[in-house]
């Protein structure tokens, strides 16, 4: 199986978030699946056109999120939507099934040709607004092996909207997640969606797991890119490239293009 670095061999990747509108079965679903697909494809094409290197499709609109496995209706519609995004662009596509359904994300990726998944709690345990969420790396890795899936695992540590119940040491968390959880890359976020990651946490994680990519997971913007970019091996961006900086709004193509250009300038040396 190829690792995450093999997807982006010659660059530090800038990965854009496709925040899906509420899906069927979720409390705020609008009733028109075609509108959900239209927005997803529109955002995907805007980010690809702006120069982003990859995308993650996420059921962000489905709050309050399921703490464990999502329902079959979510799996079914996300599979269709991810396939639409895979078809609409030539970029590597990832899947994140909130709040922490790695097995469904892996199944969707394997079925659609998506190349990686993001797992918010891969190892350890975290207190969240969904209750206590426990990492299930043992299940995820065995299922990947069983499927023979060429799908990389991006794992958050000290994840946003949560408080770790074990260690809050980023170095120890990173080592456990990589060496014991076998994650292919680490993600470092701020305290909430859109909040900037702490450069000190990124540095600590990178020092602890040399050779494993450590990505900024939230809060990268035109205002802090000079400060944050030198610390990371890549970045995941959502809120700052939306219209008005509002997470639920569509992608602003001009803002996305400016950020992608600035990222390349800061990381191409």
Structure description:
By secondary structure, the chain is an alpha/beta fold. The chain has one domain (4-267): TIM Barrel (Alpha-Beta Barrel), CATH 3.20.20.70. Helices cover 38% and strands 17% of the residues. It has nine helices and eleven strands. It has helices at 4-7, 33-50, 72-88, 102-112, 137-147, 170-180, 199-208, 225-228, 253-267; strands spanning 14-19, 54-58, 93-96, 116-119, 125-128, 131-134, 152-157, 162-164, 185-188, 214-216, 235-237. Strands 10-9-7-4-3-2-1-11 form an eight-stranded parallel β-sheet. A three-stranded antiparallel β-sheet has the order 6-5-8, with no helix packed on it. Strand 1 (14-19), helix 2 and strand 2 (54-58) form a beta-alpha-beta unit. The longest helix has 18 residues, at 33-50. It is globular and about 45 Å long. The model has no long low-confidence stretch (mean pLDDT 95).
Question: Strands, helices and their partners?
Answer:
Layout: H1 4-7, E1 14-19, H2 33-50, E2 54-58, H3 72-88, E3 93-96, H4 102-112, E4 116-119, E5 125-128, E6 131-134, H5 137-147, E7 152-157, E8 162-164, H6 170-180, E9 185-188, H7 199-208, E10 214-216, H8 225-228, E11 235-237, H9 253-267
Can you summarize this structure?
With 269 residues, the chain is of the alpha/beta class. Helix content is 38%, strand content 17%. Strand 9, helix 7 and strand 10 (214-216) form a beta-alpha-beta unit.
């Amino acid at each position: 199986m190829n690792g995450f670095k093999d997807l982006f061999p010659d660059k530090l990747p800038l990965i854009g978030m496709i925040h899906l509108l509420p899906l069927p079965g979720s409390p705020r679903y609008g009733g028109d699946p075609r509108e959900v697909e239209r927005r997803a494809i529109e955002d995907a094409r805007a980010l690809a056109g702006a120069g982003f290197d990859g995308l993650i499709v996420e059921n962000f609109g489905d709050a309050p999120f399921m703490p464990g496995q999502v329902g079959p209706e979510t799996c079914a519609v996300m599979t269709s939507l991810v396939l639409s995004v895979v078809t609409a662009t030539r970029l590597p596509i990832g899947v994140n099934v909130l709040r922490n359904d790695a097995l469904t994300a892996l199944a969707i990726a394997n079925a659609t040709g998506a190349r990686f998944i993001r797992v918010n709690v891969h190892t350890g345990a975290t207190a969240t607004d969904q209750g206590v969420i426990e990492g299930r790396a043992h299940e995820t890795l065995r299922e990947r092996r069983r499927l023979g899936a060429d799908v990389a695992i991006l794992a958050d540590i000290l994840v946003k909207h949560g408080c770790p119940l074990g260690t809050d040491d980023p170095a120890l968390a990173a080592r456990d997640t990589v060496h014991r959880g076998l994650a292919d890359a680490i993600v470092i976020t701020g305290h909430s969606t859109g909040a900037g990651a702490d450069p000190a946490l990124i540095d600590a994680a990178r020092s602890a797991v040399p050779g494993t990519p450590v990505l900024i997971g939230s809060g990268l913007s035109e205002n802090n890119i000079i400060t944050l970019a030198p610390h990371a091996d890549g970045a995941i961006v959502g809120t700052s490239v939306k219209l008005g900086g509002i997470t639920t709004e569509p992608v602003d193509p001009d803002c996305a293009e400016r950020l992608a250009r600035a990222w390349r300038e800061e990381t191409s040396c």
